[in-house]
Amino acid sequence: MGKIAFLFPGQGSQAIGMGMAAARDSQKAQTIIDQANETLGFNLSALMENGPDENLKQTENAQPALLTASIAALQLLQAEDIRPDFTAGHSLGEYSALVAAEAMSFKDAVASVRKRGEFMEQAVPSGEGAMAAVMGVERTILEKVVSEVTEEGSPVQLANLNGPQIVISGSTSGVDKASERAKKHGARRVVPLNVSGPFHSQLMEPARKQLQEVLKRIPFQDSKFPVIPNVSAKPTTSATILKDSVITQVTAPVLWEDTVRYLLDAGVDTFIEVGSGQVLSGLVKKIQRRNIQVFSVENQEDVAACIEGIKGGI
């Protein structure tokens, strides 16, 4: 039998109602949601359940909400004794992966990502940073483009290497210039992203420093099974490396395609996206369609389909 990886979504996957089905299906999932409310000191679950959307998608709210929805859904899998061989999360989702691997507690994680969201929101004045998704250009070509634009005085860099889609991030002028040059190099599409800041760029350095101070006080343990950090796309169980990785990733690219390819090479043939949405499921299928199973789990019905699929094999 092949190996199983749990994948945890990041910002952009939030949706009104997330986490609620898991809470209805499991008392342990409800307890996770109650712990989030208690730890943060406000009713996060009401925002998750009812919105409004403009409040839910604010970075400081979306990040703890996504983590909470993922760890609530995780309770359903654990109740059925479905365990991963590896965990990985996209950006913010890496904190969910750490909780799943018991490298940090849920309470510490939800408090940390609330702060992370606040720091990222404050790092760059509104309008001075941007992100854009570029489709149809090789990574090496796009790396050259952003390097040239940065050298000309408009900072921009690769932020999310998702596979066929690469997200660039940086100053507004840098993203605009790199987007135009990417089109000249054959990009099929360039889509500006509706985000509040230039995440995973060097412009997030103030947020990285603030987060480092917060995480300095939080205990991390060696993980129970390997986690694949965004910054290296290489497995580790080391508490020190895991903590350093979530600090570094604030200003560094998310190596998601490399992460998925590592998991495939390591013998993973079952990918389970745990929490809100199916963004990561879609990215996995774009990287590798054959000889794998991909599931997304938000409720008990999803878990039943997952069990059936795992039993049946590929």
Automatic annotation (TrEMBL):
Family per record:
Belongs to the fabD family.
Q: Note the PANTHER family from the entry.
A: MALONYL-COA-ACYL CARRIER PROTEIN TRANSACYLASE, MITOCHONDRIAL (PTHR42681)
Its EC number is 2.3.1.39
Q: Which InterPro entries match?
A: Ac_transferase_dom_sf, Acyl_transferase_dom, Acyl_Trfase/lysoPLipase, Mal-CoA-ACP_Trans/PKS_FabD, Malonyl_CoA-ACP_transAc, Malonyl_CoA-ACP_transAc_FabD, Malonyl_transacylase_ACP-bd
Its keywords, alphabetically, are: Acyltransferase, Transferase
Reactions mediated catalytically = holo-[ACP] + malonyl-CoA = malonyl-[ACP] + CoA
- All copies of the Malonyl-CoA:ACP transacylase (MAT) domain together span 7-302
Gene Ontology biological process: fatty acid biosynthetic process
Question: Which EC class is this protein assigned?
Answer: transferase
Name recorded for this polypeptide: Malonyl CoA-acyl carrier protein transacylase
Enumerate the active-site residues. S91, H200
Query: Which segments of the protein form a coiled coil according to its record?
Result: none
Question: What are the recorded GO MF terms, alphabetically?
Answer: [acyl-carrier-protein] S-malonyltransferase activity
Q: Name one GO cellular component term.
A: cytosol
